Amino acid sequence: MKNAHFQRLQGASMGFLAGYVDTLGFIALFGLFTAHVTGNFVLIAAALADPAQTPSLLKLLAFPAFILGVAAARLVVARYEGRETGATRPVYLLQLVLLLGFMVCGMLDEPVGNTAGSFAFAAGLLGAAAMGAHSAASKLLLTNLAPTSMMTGNVTQLVIDTVDRLRGAADEATRARCAKFFWPVFAFALGCVASAFAYRAFGFFALAVPNAILVWHLFLSEPQAAQ
Fold this sequence. Notes:
Elements: H1 4-28, H2 37-49, H3 57-80, H4 88-108, H5 118-140, H6 151-166, H7 172-202, H8 208-220
């Protein structure tokens, strides 16, 4: 399970999931970024600076929800430290439960009106918490992969390594790093596009796709030791 091909597939599928969930939340919930904390900071700051706007409570609470998702994943990993059985599956399960909640709450509030109802509000917070857990898993358990939800650093590294390859200064490590960072970036972008079309066609039920990806990883992940 830990060969190079599987690692590329793992990084790409998790990058696709992050782009997909972030885009769906943005389209469905009034510009909410579930996986992109920086974007929410920008939107809140813009609203605060414009007297004609009021910052959305959902966007204000998305950040603490994201933090709670990170904290929950950290506590799960800490609980399994030192055990023979790793925390990879439990953290995937945590993400799955939160993403299922995102999907179900969103479906219960469809069609979403001009303002977020109680179920849509809950959906946004659960989505942000799910992506907090996703980001924590990337940092804590999938350290052999490029980050799967923070693309700015990935793109920066990819461009640096590509320039070095073009000027003939790349070694084998540089070429390997290019592949490592390229596939999550490409998959994230693909997930964004797929999500935009899927939400238009299926509404919140489109979140069945990232949930299916997590179920697939639950079955493929090894029970021994975190990856």
